[in-house]
Amino acid sequence: MVTKPHDTTGTSGTSPAKQQKKLGFFALTAVVVGSMIGGGAFNLAADMAVGASAGAVLIGWVITGIGIIALGLSFQNLTMRRPDLDGGIYSYARAGFGPFVGFNSAWGYWLSAWLGNVAYATLLFSSVGYFFPVFEGGQNLASILGASVLLWLVHALILRGVHEASLVNIITTIAKLVPIFAFITLILFAFNLDQFTFQFFGEGGFNFSSVKEQVVSTMLVTLWVFIGVEGAVVLSGRANKRSDIGKATVIGLIGTLIIYVLISVMSLGVMSNADLATIDRPAMAYILESVVGQWGAVLINIGLVISVLGAWLGWTLLAAEIPYIAAKDGVFPKWFAKENKNEAPVNALWLTNGLIQLFLFTFLISDAAYTFAFSLASSAILIPYAVSAFFQVKVSRGEIGYAPGEKRTRDLMLGLVASAYGIWLIYAAGMDYLLLTTLLYAPGTLLYVKAQREAGIKGLTKWEWTGTAVLTVLAFAALIAMWNGNLSI
Ligand SMILES: NC(=[NH2+])NCCC[C@H](N)C(=O)O
Questions:
Q1: Is the pLDDT of residue 10 over 60?
Q2: Which residues cross the membrane (predicted)?
Q3: pLDDT tens digits for 243-273?
Q4: Region 85-89 average pLDDT
């Protein structure tokens, strides 16, 4: 995960001294891959096996592959066609669909960023628990304490002005890729085709509705491991040759996809679906341990710890950055734009980390804290992703960014495929997670009203009222469902 240092002028990286080092093709591809792989890869095999057989896992990857590549290329196209919109993902939403959608896009992206760190916390401590058994499982009281200490350490670091993670990024990219490649290579030798094809479409053989359900169950998982794709694309702008930008993005995306497919598919060739679904976390460590012995688990767990620490720092920087930049743009209330003397976005950071702290306590009441937190992070990002895809469609049909007569078919297709993927994901996320996320989206509207007031705009438009009303009703429905025990975490 890599972030660009925030800049107080609101324009991005203008002075040459501030410009980051230009990268060659290989380094660029590594950066693209590295910014998507964080922690999800390490438990991917188990998370997919919980609800899906080998055949469904493969179908899930085909859908995800097509969707994510279309989305990634859409982001890339938008960066190139609309360099004027440099506030990141929410500025697309705002330019395309107005301030309310823009606000919710920023809000959802921010929600996802910090919810993802809640997932990281439990994943991290399940690995630490391999070495120090007090943390075993990663979601007991000791893990909450450990994660809290880490949380506020990172907080202090950022308040003191740490905002560049480039050295950290190089170290963590190596630390995560080495064990992952080792894993893939080593289990290749243990791969058993009969094991893999056994009950390929589940117990009852092929049955459309069961396979569809299985595929649906993998969608929040495969989305989770690809979160970061928007940042990866931005980074490919650091290419020293222009022609490398597109190439590195495509190769980076396909490379990441192949890595993920191999992790999940190969695992199903060394262990039964049922065993994988119930294996301890992080699955990759225990799968490798079953193949090569204890050192396998040691290697993977060390890799995970380094990788997740780096990703945690990167995503904390980003999570605080989003409301900060949005506030500078007048989309969030001004409160979020406050900086301390080290130019750290102090208010945004306190709120973000405060919420993470609060959510760490869900470890105690949820029996699948990791699944819960990453599914919520995936659901929360659906709005910003889907809206960006819609914007790609809009841009490819509009005036700005294209020379007269320039062909747009490719861009339009990308936008349509990415939009279809976005809509499919909203369906696949399922009612439970969508209701839970409205619970988090609804309070945001109060901040929207405040930001509008500060900008001198009183009252909401008809559409804004409708949006607010829908969110509020759904949030209440979620509360009632929780109260009745129909919705649990
Ligand atoms: N803290 C976050 N919001 N992380 C989101 C990124 C998840 C990343 N794709 C991973 O697999 O780990």
A1: no
A2: 23-42, 48-73, 114-135, 141-159, 166-191, 215-236, 248-272, 292-318, 348-366, 372-391, 412-427, 463-483
A3: 787 788 889 999 999 999 999 999 999 999 9
A4: 78
pLDDT confidence of residue 165: 62
Give the residue from 467, 334, 396, 427 showing the smallest Cα distance to 96. 396
Cβ < 6 A, ligand 1 pocket: 36-41, 112-113, 116-117, 120, 224-228, 311, 315, 377
Distance 278 CA to ligand 1 centre (A): 22
pLDDT at 1 over 60: no
Number of residues in the chain: 489
43-56 mean pLDDT:
95
Tens digits of per-residue pLDDT, 396-443?
998 888 988 889 999 999 999 999 999 999 999 998 999 999 999 999
Taking CA atoms only, the protein residue closest to ligand 1 atom 10 is 38
Q: Is the pLDDT of residue 211 over 90?
A: yes
Asked if residue 120 lies in contact with residue 369, where contact means CB atoms within 8 angstroms, the answer is no
> Ligand 1 centroid to 26 CA: how many Å?
23
Confidence tier at 4 by pLDDT (50, 70, 90): very low
Tokens of 266: 């190969």
- Which two tokens mark 327? 């506030």
Residues 6+ apart with CB under 8 A from 200: 53, 54, 55
Q: Buried (b) or exposed (e) across 362-398, using 16+ Cβ within 10 A? A: bbeebeebbbbbbbbbbbbbbbbbbbbbbbbbebbee
Do residues 48 and 268 lie in contact, with contact meaning Cβ atoms separated by under 8 Å?
no
Express each pLDDT in 94-136 by its tens digit: 999 999 999 999 999 999 999 999 999 999 999 999 999 999 9
Closest Cα to atom 4 of ligand 1:
116
Domain ranges of the chain: 25-432
Q: How far is the CA of 207 from the centre of ligand 1 (A)?
A: 33
> Between 2.60.40.10, 1.20.1740.10, 2.30.110.10, 3.40.50.12160, what CATH number should domain 25-432 receive?
1.20.1740.10
* Atom 2 of ligand 1: nearest residue by CA position: 116
Q: How many CA atoms lie within 13 A of 347 on its CB side?
A: 14
Tokens coding 43 = 């438990």
